[in-house]
């Protein structure tokens, strides 16, 4: 057939079909074509009216069709002889009716109505697209097959010719074939998308939630998402085809439509790396949709997380952050999601903008929101995948960049930041310590040094980062310095902080760890200094921890002349009444661990005598009265 013949065939009017004039076979959804040919028009009309009445008991939106498609006047209307205007109006009415009928397509009343429209208005010829649109969500049912068999789609130029192979065998359309055709024929993809928007428009003003359209939204998502997954490459053409519908879905107040759109955005994000401008636009639209429809908070944030996770870092700009901050359920939802899923991609996007917002401009409503959200995130959502260090670094870097602020503005900033820094430190002290320790040696500029020390003053443990004159480095690093003399000086500085009542500048964890670490030192002078600090803070430490440290020291250290004063001091501390007070089990256990040290060897005699007089052995049942004997043995060896 030539190209011209194809065009002429496509332009042929349905009424020129010879089957319309023959009464041997009549197209019918419910009856055999030969049986249908024997039935009169009034029978089909009564059947259609009965179906409409039954539908009205379910859905009032069909009421207007009583006076049009199902009126008495329709009995005598022959569309083939009507004007173009009349036929256009008739097509519009049929289109609206079939669109509203789609959610109820599987019900028998719907079949009765379709039967009348097929018989009277020949919708299988004039309105084939709309009839298939009504049936397509039910493509795997026998009713769909019966509708399909009414159509004239044998010609290769017909848009539905790909379904012709199903007509003769009478088999339903498989899901795989549907999805394959969706991504291979973009006009069909567009047809599915317009089904959704047309259905929403058809029910606008009749139902607020459009709950009856759930089947349409489900079909939309379950077709488009797998089609995007199946296609080898999501082209720009596919994206441009889907984008208008994605934007409509994100703006829609309909929950199910929005949920379906979230699924499509996720699949697009996973399948293709999009332009930054498109990613930013999608992020803004998603965040707007979350403010308007908090019911889908988890789904929307999940969609945003998938988008950010699979696109280039930094593709989404700051516009979405303001919207997210005005979302009341943001942090509680993130908290719930973080217990099951990885929300770090969303936090990695959100946190830098929140931190920057604290320092940008003067205080205002937006900044208050950002501060509130940031505090809530730190309080409730765990920062994983090095995000704690990222926040610590952002806070410090932003603070050090405030070189132009006046003293008054700086004071206001400190007041705003103080509770935030303290909260962060209480949750992620290790991350803050690591970042601050790394900056101690990096800061050389005088103004930067001043800002750094000002930032340290916001911390509960600012003392550990104080610069010591002996080493020109921080207390934290001085305690681990390779030179024993520097370590001694650092421990003595710790002692000065404790005795001067300034230990609030050090958190208890750091103080304890510093003392315990220096008790393991290989230099007697360092350990001796650490023992003095230990005695000064004995009241705030757990007795079991102190006893364990001292016992480890006694067993580890060589009882030589240079270590003996240190060990003797350790034994003296073991006899402190604050240890073992009203804890018989601790006394007994410690006594058993000290017994091996009582073995009489020449270098240990002085240590043995001290041990025998210690409170732990003095109360132990096996060593009662050993102290006088130990004194005599030491005297006899001198």
From TrEMBL:
Which stretch is the leader sequence? Answer: none
Keyword Nucleus: yes or no? yes
Q: Name one GO molecular function term.
A: snoRNA binding
What is one cellular component GO term in this UniProt entry? small-subunit processome
Single GO biological process annotation from the record: maturation of SSU-rRNA from tricistronic rRNA transcript (SSU-rRNA, 5.8S rRNA, LSU-rRNA)
Major subcellular location class:
nucleus
* Compartmental location: Nucleus, Nucleolus
- Outline what the protein does: Involved in nucleolar processing of pre-18S ribosomal RNA.
Instruction: Please state which protein family the record places this protein in.
Output: Belongs to the HEATR1/UTP10 family.
What's the protein name?
A: HEAT repeat-containing protein 1
């Amino acid at each position: 057939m030539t190209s011209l013949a194809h065009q002429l065939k496509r332009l042929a009017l349905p009424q020129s079909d010879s089957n319309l004039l023959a009464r041997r076979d009549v197209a019918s959804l419910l009856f055999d074509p030969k049986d249908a040919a024997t039935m009169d028009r009034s029978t089909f009309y009564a059947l259609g009216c009965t179906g409409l009445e039954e539908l009205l008991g379910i859905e009032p939106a069909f009421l207007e069709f009583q006076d049009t498609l199902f009126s008495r006047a329709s009995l005598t209307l022959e569309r083939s002889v009507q004007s173009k205007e009349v036929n256009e109006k008739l097509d519009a009415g049929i289109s609206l009716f079939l669109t509203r009928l789609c959610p109820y397509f599987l019900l028998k009343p719907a079949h009765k109505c379709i039967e009348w429209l097929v018989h009277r208005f020949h919708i299988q010829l004039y309105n084939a697209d709309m009839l298939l649109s009504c049936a397509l969500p039910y493509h795997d049912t026998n009713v769909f097959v019966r509708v399909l068999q009414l159509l004239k789609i044998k010609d290769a130029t017909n848009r539905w010719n790909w379904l012709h192979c199903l007509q003769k065998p009478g088999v339903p359309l498989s899901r795989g074939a549907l999805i394959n055709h969706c991504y291979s024929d973009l006009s069909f993809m567009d047809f599915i998308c317009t089904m959704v928007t047309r259905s929403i428009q058809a029910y606008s003003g009749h139902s607020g939630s459009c709950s009856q359209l759930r089947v349409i939204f489900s079909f939309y998502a379950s077709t488009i998402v797998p089609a995007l997954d199946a296609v080898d490459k999501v082209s720009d053409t596919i994206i441009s085809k889907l984008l208008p519908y994605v934007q409509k879905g994100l703006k829609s107040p309909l929950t199910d439509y929005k949920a379906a759109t979230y699924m499509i955005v996720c699949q697009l994000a996973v399948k293709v790396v999009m332009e930054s401008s498109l990613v930013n636009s999608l992020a803004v639209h998603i965040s707007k949709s979350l403010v308007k429809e908090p019911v889908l908070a988890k789904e929307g944030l999940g969609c945003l997380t998938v988008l950010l996770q699979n696109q280039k870092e930094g593709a989404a700009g700051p516009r979405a952050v303001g919207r997210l901050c005005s979302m009341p359920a943001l942090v509680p939802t993130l908290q719930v999601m973080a217990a099951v899923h990885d929300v770090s991609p969303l936090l990695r996007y959100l946190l830098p903008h929140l931190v920057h917002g604290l320092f940008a401009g003067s205080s205002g409503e937006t900044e208050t929101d950002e501060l509130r959200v940031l505090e809530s995130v730190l309080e409730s959502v765990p920062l994983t995948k090095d995000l704690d260090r990222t926040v610590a670094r952002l806070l410090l870097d932003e603070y050090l960049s405030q070189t132009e602020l006046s003293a008054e503005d700086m004071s206001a900033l400190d007041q705003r930041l103080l509770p935030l820094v303290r909260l962060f430190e209480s949750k992620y002290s290790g991350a803050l310590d690591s970042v601050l320790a790394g900056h101690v040696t990096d800061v050389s500029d005088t103004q930067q040094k001043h800002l750094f020390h000002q930032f340290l003053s916001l911390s509960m443990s600012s003392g550990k980062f104080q610069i010591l004159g002996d080493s020109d480095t921080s207390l934290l690093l001085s305690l681990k310095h390779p030179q024993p003399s520097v370590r001694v000086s650092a421990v003595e500085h710790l002692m000065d902080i404790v005795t001067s009542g300034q230990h609030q500048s050090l958190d208890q964890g750091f103080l304890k760890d510093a003392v315990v670490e220096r008790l393991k030192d290989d230099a007697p002078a360092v350990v001796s200094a650490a023992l003095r600090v230990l005695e000064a803070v004995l009241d705030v430490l757990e007795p079991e921890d102190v006893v364990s440290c001292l016992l480890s020291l006694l067993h580890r250290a060589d009882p030589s002349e240079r270590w003996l004063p240190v060990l003797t001091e350790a034994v003296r501390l073991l006899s402190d009444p604050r240890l073992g007070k009203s804890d018989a089990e601790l006394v007994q256990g410690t006594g058993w661990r000290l017994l091996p040290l009582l073995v009489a060897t020449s270098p240990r005699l002085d240590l043995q005598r001290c041990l025998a007089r210690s409170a732990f052995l003095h109360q132990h049942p096996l060593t009662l009265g050993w102290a006088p004997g130990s004194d005599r043995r030491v005297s006899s060896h001198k």
